[in-house]
Amino acid sequence: MIRAIVFSFTLLSLRSFAQPVQDTTTHLEEVTVRAYFVEQPLLRLTTSAGVVGRSTLEHQSGHTLLPAFNTMPGVRMEERSPGSYRLSLRGSLLRSPFGVRNVKVYLDEIPLTDAGGNTYLNLLDADGVDRIAVLKGPDGSLFGANSGGVVLIRPVGMSNEADNSASLRMNGGSFGLFQEQLTTQLNPSPTYRFGFSQAYQRADGYRQNSEMKRAAFQTVQRWNYTPANELRLIALYSDLRYRTPGGLTKAQYVDDPRLARPATPATPGALEQQAGIVNKTLIGGLVHDAQLNGKLKHVASVFGTHTDFSNPFITNYEIRDEYNVGFRTYVDYADGDPNAFSWRFNAGLEWQYGGTDISNYDNHGGSQGDEQAIDALKSLQHFYFVRLSADVASRLTMEAALSLNYYRYRYKSIFPGNESAFTDRDFDAEWMPRVALSYLFMPQLSGRLSLSRGYSPPTIAEIRPSDNMVNTALAAETGWNYEAGFRWQTANRRAFVDGSVFYYRMEDAIIRQLRESGAEFFDNAGGVNQRGVELSAVVWAVEPRMHGVLQGLQVGSNLTLSKFRFGDYRVGDDDFTGNKLTGVPASTVVSSLLAQFPGGISGYILHNYTASIPLDDANTAFADSYHLLQAKISWDTALNKQLKLQIFAGGDNLLNQKYSLGNDINAFGGRFFNAAATRNFYGGIALRY
């Protein structure tokens, strides 16, 4: 562990502070975040947050968001196979068979998290994302039910730059990787502008039965019909198909990590059943942003989604038809003197309704067979929120916010039950308060304190999981989060440090379990005590400049320490009280170095150290720790005044580590391990106008 930290701090991690090479002499651009409806300096934000800007994304491989998310302390993204992702904020991945749990995700003003609690983050193409802001810890004041945090994604097309631009990027690499991305941002008139991105990606994958294909189309259309009023359309269509190789036992993982889950005397194998997922989703919404006067603003959005989902699995063939509709509206009123006393008030509501028809059939080698179970579920959630913030002399920021959250679902068995009416399951209305303050001790140093309550009801995928049984006894997670932190930056903004400590006491934690067949189910585990420390630092050792051999050198690092333990947790005769929380490494250090040279050449190195991970609640099995090293080199040159060319090449897992990324926790029969790819490379070109 000590060697890992020493090594990592020599590479120090890149955050969103990376800027293009520029002729700057004294100050770098200040980092801001749009966390609570307005852009504000990260230095004075009252919550722990991470920001991934466009420049950081461009230093990655471009075919996945995973490394970029993992540059933020307290954030962990995993990949079981190409296209199969998990995202966790300050917590375990206990609830995540794939995708996201405990976290609310927005694309601009449109929730990606649906009424049933599911978030298909893997539908997004990395090149369609302009910026990501992550608010860590429960924050239901403006965003509704969550216990882990909030992810705010700004899509391409939201930039206010006046120039037209376009880019075409193509790259390929090991294990059958091929990717093509086309992105445009055009301004046909002073009142109308739009962005469009199209992407196609495929990969054969490292393991058997792990190929993936995705075609994604995304647009943002913006009409400023008056100088103070804007109407924008946001739409995304993604056709995602990927195979799922399944977990291996320790012996199988050691003997041949490329295997898909093999057959047993009781069940067929993943390759034989052509296990995989097809997800065709359309997301769309209209956002009306109106500045009514110099102090009052009103924002309203309406949105809807439709998902055609199929999942041939080891023991069944599942088909889901999902739809969601909703709206969100709020007012923002600001007044006062910024140099003396200013204040801001927000109030609004968000409402979502969703329907899910789930049908399970026999799986005959990837073909649909006879019915096993067919159910219809409907979910409804809505919340009201208010927030008041005040700023005193541009030094003290105080916030108080409150939301009231409602959640219910209805279910009906169509086969074999043939029920004529729905059965209701209502959850009690839950208050989610948040109070916080930030104080600027000096122009470069701030401290913050916050207290907030988390609340996360079970999702439809947990209420009716792949074992085909509706679990009406599953309760919502709740808890209180206590947090303190600081931020420091140099006067010229060449260095920035952010640290936080927190304690989150969760009740009724939802735990993922697997049956012998591999079908999953969920249960409440009782209390969980989550104590953590997060620290990140970034510094421009050589400030960006236009002269010299080394024209920019940025180093930084982030450290996450997690002491997460089960509270009172008993299952039958087994007592797991005090055990390490399943799926959480005790420490991670993610670090990087960015170097810029003459002639448009730049180099980027990323190192990720992850400690061992408990794989079952009894803490009898662990995934080994690993060091993951990635690198990329790019050459940018101008073909003429308007057209630029970039040639790039990179590699992943350069140390050729044998590790499992995206473990199947609490897997029956010890099938925990999903082997990650060995050393692999990629390369490509990009044209920018």
From TrEMBL:
GO terms for biological process: siderophore transmembrane transport. It is found in: Cell outer membrane. It comes from the Bacteria. InterPro entries: Beta-barrel_TonB, Beta-barrel_TonB_sf, Plug_dom, Plug_dom_sf, TonB-dep_rcpt-like. Residues 44-150 form the TonB-dependent receptor plug domain. It holds the Pfam family Plug. Residues 1-18 form the signal peptide. One of its GO terms (cellular component) is cell outer membrane. GO terms for molecular function: siderophore uptake transmembrane transporter activity. Residues 223-654 form the TonB-dependent receptor-like beta-barrel domain. Gene3D superfamilies: TonB-dependent receptor, beta-barrel domain, TonB-dependent receptor, plug domain. Keywords: Cell outer membrane, Membrane, Signal, TonB box, Transmembrane, Transmembrane beta strand, Transport. It is a multi-pass membrane protein. The keyword Membrane applies. Belongs to the TonB-dependent receptor family. This is Iron complex outermembrane recepter protein. It comes from Parapedobacter koreensis.
